[in-house]
Design goal:
alpha+beta; OB fold (Dihydrolipoamide Acetyltransferase, E2P); 3 helices; Gyrase A, domain 2; 5-stranded mixed β-sheet
């Protein structure tokens, strides 16, 4: 049996695929227990006999979505200063006061909107939010600064 937090990466009427947000291991379920792509599950799963290559859900203790939103606001002054002080492609991670994290990525001039779209669509953004146990993600982009705020 495995107890973990999972991101639902694929789902249809007959089955689903879960990714463990901690170790990235992928588990194919033999049935869909009522989940949709993009949901976060805290669950217990076990391999299904006899071959034990597919999994079944034993118990779901939490099932939720974490919204990932693109804010029309520009990055904060702090985020713009961090971006200006680091090379293109670098990421600075900072804990937020209280809960969550702030990630600041420096991108080439004029590519902030495309980078924001990539972060918005990346499954890893949701997996990271689940690992951090936050309630929402806010993406801000302008100039060379891209900020990803993982918020309670």
């Amino acid at each position: 049996m495995k107890d973990a937090t999972f991101l639902v990466t694929a789902a249809d009427g007959d089955s689903a695929v879960l990714q463990d947000v901690t170790d990235s291991q992928v588990h194919t379920l033999t049935t869909n227990p009522g989940v949709e792509v993009g949901e976060i599950l805290t669950a217990s799963i076990e391999p299904e006999p006899p071959m034990e290559v597919a999994w079944q859900v034993v118990e779901i203790t939490d099932q939720r979505t974490i919204p990932v939103e693109r804010s029309p606001e520009p990055p904060t002054k702090q985020a713009r200063e961090i971006a200006a002080d680091q090379p293109v492609g670098e990421v600075t991670r900072q804990e937020r006061a209280g809960e969550g994290e702030l990630h600041v990525i420096t991108v080439p001039e004029g590519e902030a909107a495309d980078a924001a779209a990539d972060v918005h669509d990346d499954e890893e953004t949701l997996a990271r939010a689940a690992r951090l146990d936050v309630d929402r993600v806010e993406i801000r982009a302008d100039g060379q600064a891209l900020s990803v705020r993982y918020l309670p």
